[in-house]
Amino acid sequence: MLNYAVRRLLSAIPTLFVIITLAFFMMRLAPGGPFDREKQLPPEIEANILRAYNLDKPLYEQYVDYLTNIVRGDFGPSYKYLDFTVTDLIMTGFPVSLRLGLYAIVIAVLFGVAAGTVAALNQNSTFDYLVMGFAMTGIVIPNFVMAPLLALVFGVYLSLLPVAGWGGGKLQYQILPVITLALPQIAYIARLTRGSMVEVMNSNFIRTARAKGLAERIVVVRHALRGGLLPVVSYLGPATAAVITGSVVIESIFDVPGIGRYFVNGALNRDYPVVMGVVIFYAVLIILLNLLVDLLYGFLDPRVKVE
Amino acid sequence: MKEASKPFKPDGLASIGTTEPVKGRSLWQDARRRLFHNKAAIGSMIVLGIIVLMAIFAPLLSPWAFDDPDWGYDFPGPPSIELKHWFGTDGNGRDLFVRTLFGARISLLVGVIATSVSLLIGVAYGATAGFIGGRTDNIMMRLVDILYSLPFMFFVILLMVVFGRNIFLIFVALGAVEWLTMARIVRGQALSVKKKEFIEAAHAVGVSNATIITRHIIPNVLGPVIVYMTLTIPQVILTESFLSFLGLGVQEPLTSWGVLISEGAKQMESAPWMLIFPAIFLAVTLFCFNFIGDGLRDALDPKDR
Amino acid sequence: MLLDIQNLTTRFATPEGEVFAVNDVSLQVEAGQCLGVVGESGSGKTQVFMSMMGLLAKNGRAEGTVNFNGRQILGLEAAELNRLRGVEFSMIFQDPMTSLNPYLRISKQMTEVLVEHRGITERDAAAKSIDMLKLVGIPEAEKRFRMYPHEFSGGMRQRAMIAMALICEPKLLIADEPTTALDVTVQAQILELIAGLGRKLNMATVLITHDLGVIAGLSDRVTVMYGGRVVEEASVTDVFHNPQHPYTRGLLESMPRLDTRSDQALHAIPGQPPDLQALPAGCSFAPRCFHAFDRCRQEIPRLRAIGGNRVKACHLEAMV
Fold first, then answer.
1. Residue A207 CB partners (closer than 8 Å, separation 6+)
2. Contact status of A140 with chain B (Cβ, < 8 Å)
3. Which of A148, A195, C14, C180 could staple B265 via S-S, CB 3.0–4.6 A?
4. Looking at residue A40, what is its pLDDT?
């Protein structure tokens, strides 16, 4: 098990290397620099700026510098927020984004699994149709449509919740961002759970459990859920990626001071180090989480031999 | 007793050769019949057809141009039947109905073109990997796995940041990102079809390679590819809207649903119509594609017949 | 009488119409007796016992009476039925590969039956379960007890299934095609095991099979089913030596036997089993029967006693 984890971690290194290299050269190939202004700067000032940011060195030196710095956890200075390094920005934004994302995932799994299971056990009931209708809506309607609509209804018309801001992390400020972030995942997990639970409940070993005279509660909880939830476990990897991507939009819409907002501002202002730093940071995070999910899966399904 | 020499089979197979052969229905006839029974899919096709026609004939449907402000009306102005501003006007006084339909043109175009790009790359890549098999297949699919584990949306954003916000880049960037799943599907189909008994049987009775490919392999691969294509189009439309929403996609004076929703979201308190109409169009289109995709999958999946 | 099924009718509602799976079936099993139930797929043989076990698919409805030890058990509430299933009577299934839960250890799948029904501790249940595994002939029972089903071979899994079914010492074991999915070499062992345990524990057994040969040496009586109906019921010797229904005779003639000469052809029954959605007005076997006459096509033959403690459902007086 440990062996496998270490090997998986090592195999992630080339992936990361590809990501960093790709990102680096894409940025440097870009037409137009980050310091292009409306007015042409005097040449000596421009040279000074380039030197200050090490942009006057040959490309391969910049690349080697960037790589070694990243290994030390240094993503370089931000071009936009002049007093901050990219690492500063990520460290400031991450706790906020993490809280948002974690709440969203937990809520998505709890509600998604519950709704999907009940729907599967009452196949073709009104509740089942309601859940499936909701799931379809949640999957199809993008979060950047859902977010302003919910803000319009709950923030503007009903005045129940603040429309935007973080308020230092007060609960009422978190509700709308977390819900909009969780909705598509609740929907997806509900659909996934329903599908796999329907299949499991029709399987031969559930018939055996019933033939043994076990109470329905035990049949469902002990015999069906374990297999029925495996697809949800393997979906946790993609779910995290989706929540991270979604958080970019949600943080921008609700003006939440997380990594996503810095990322979008960086993208709009050609703040290359910030954009690259965030991409690399999230890539590492997603790779690690996928590894964790795989290990968890191997632990839950005895037939998977983790070697 | 003609049948006397045939062995008895307990599973009701004793009848093989003794009854009329069941009249064969082709996969496609069957699929069409099943699709036309699916009300959601048919309804979606009709609605989608209307949206497409409206997008094509947009200039004929309204007296207003998509980029000229109506100086005689509010900036933004609420929907008004007399002035023929059916969806109202935006913050620059431009007619929102026409802008929504021009947005539809861009969004649908991106959906179709980027999906075709992804189809081309994905089919070529997946078919190569699947039919060559072995080591080549291993390496090619390992590469797909690596690309899969990347936060691809961030890469698209990176692309947009670096190469400027140009509409052709959007087509290519989205297509270049969406081919991964297509490659996997095609490769999986190619592999399984290659091993299927009916292919071996066809080989055994001396059917030529060309006939095997056209008669057996293509029809078997085509189904899943069509289904996945219908489900990729809304995915691409969504991604384009996402980028445009963030200000990284289509640029003024062109517009897309993402741009319109983004503008609407900024003014939703004073001018909710700017958010609601484009949002409805985007949502309805996405629903339609999903229903059609689901309908096609049910129709083409020979498993539950 | 341990099990007395009277006029059982089971139907399934499908989008294409009702499927008449079991039609007015009556059969009996005495304590300690072994009954063989024979028929093709779709003859309703499995659904009779699924109805009894309360294991019908959701779209299935069963009517009639099923008396077990003098008590009507058809239509019992799930909670009531759960006091009998796995305790008074158990069932094992055709495919031991998929009938065991792949995510749970054999230990849990066995002990849960005892813990649930007998209310004993996990530890006592474990001891008893290991004894049971030994009884069904699983080597290194203590070690295998802790394993997962996928670590067992097919035959071992079926043994584990049997151990699980017998752990509460039921009075009746229903075995639905218990050897069909197994290797030929293992089939005989499993059948011997079931028959042997039946004698040892004084337990009645029902062997459901499509293969008359399976039953020959093991069961006391044989019930032959066709098109959801019982067509003949007799002692195993009578069925083999003097079949009185044309279908039973067809089954026998289609069976390869050691005592037939090798140049003698096997006789298949022509035609195919009836469509359970549209059963013929008369005898459902009539379209395939060489002896059928007009009455067979118009009137469903009732089960009737033909002497010698046997019954058949056929308009023919007697077969020679």
1. C55, C93, C99
2. yes
3. A148
4. 65
Let me know: does B90 contact B70? Beta carbons within 8 Å. no
Distance from CA of B32 to the nearest CA of C (A): 20
Cβ partners under 8 Å of residue C263, min gap 6: none
User: Using CA atoms in the order A69, A73, A76, A80, what is the torsion angle rounded to 10 degrees?
Assistant: 170
Q: With 0.95 as the threshold, say if the pTM is over it.
A: no
Amino acid (1-letter code) at residue B5: S
| Tokens at B249, concatenated | 């996609």
Q: Which position has the higher pLDDT, C189 or B23?
A: C189
Query: Is pLDDT at B204 greater than 50 in this prediction?
Result: yes
Return residues 3-62 of C near A (CB < 8 Å).
Answer: 53-55, 58
Residue-wise pLDDT for A176-199, tens only, equals 899 999 999 999 999 999 999 999
CATH code for the part of the protein at A86-300? 1.10.3720.10
- From the candidates C55, C103, C105, C146, which should be mutated to test the interface with A, based on the most A CB atoms within 10 A? C103
A228 interfaces chain C, CB cutoff of 8 Å: no
Residue ranges of domains in chain A: 86-300
Q: ipTM value of the model?
A: 0.89
Q: Which residue of B has its CA nearest to C252?
A: B8
Residue C46 counted as domain residue: yes
Q: Please indicate, yes or no, if residue C149 is contained in any of the structural domains.
A: no
Cβ contact B10–C41 (<8 Å): yes
Residue C101 to residue A204, Cβ atoms within 8 A: no
Q: Any alpha helices (H) in chain B, and if so which ranges?
A: 27-36, 39-56, 58-61, 96-132, 134-148, 152-163, 167-195, 197-204, 209-211, 218-245, 257-266, 273-300
Domain count for chain C: 1
Q: State the CATH number of the domain containing residue C260.
A: 3.40.50.300
The minimum CA-CA distance between B8 and chain A, rounded to whole Å, is: 29
Give the residue, A241 or A49, on which the prediction is more confident: A241
Point out the residue among C255, C265, C272 whose CB comes nearest to the CB of B14. Answer: C272
% pLDDT > 70, chain B: 84
Quote the domain boundaries for residue C84.
3-88+170-312
Are C175 and C206 in contact, with CB atoms under 8 Å apart?
Answer: yes
Closest partner CB to A223 (pick from C83, C98, C101): C101
3-class DSSP state of B271? coil
Specify if C253 maps to a domain.
yes
Q: Is the pLDDT of residue A34 over 70?
A: no
| Category of C69 on φ-ψ map: left (φ > 0), alpha (ψ -120 to 50) or beta | left
Q: pLDDT value at position A299? A: 81
Helix axes A86-121, A259-268, angle to 10 degrees: 120
A128: CB partners within 8 A, 6+ apart: A119, A120, A122, A194
Residue of A nearest to B280 (CA): A145
Interface of C with A in 284-313 (CB under 8 A): none
Residue C140 included in any domain: no
Mind giving me the DSSP string for B232-247?
HHHHHHHHHHHHHHTT
Least trusted range by pLDDT, from A3-17, B235-249, C228-242: A3-17
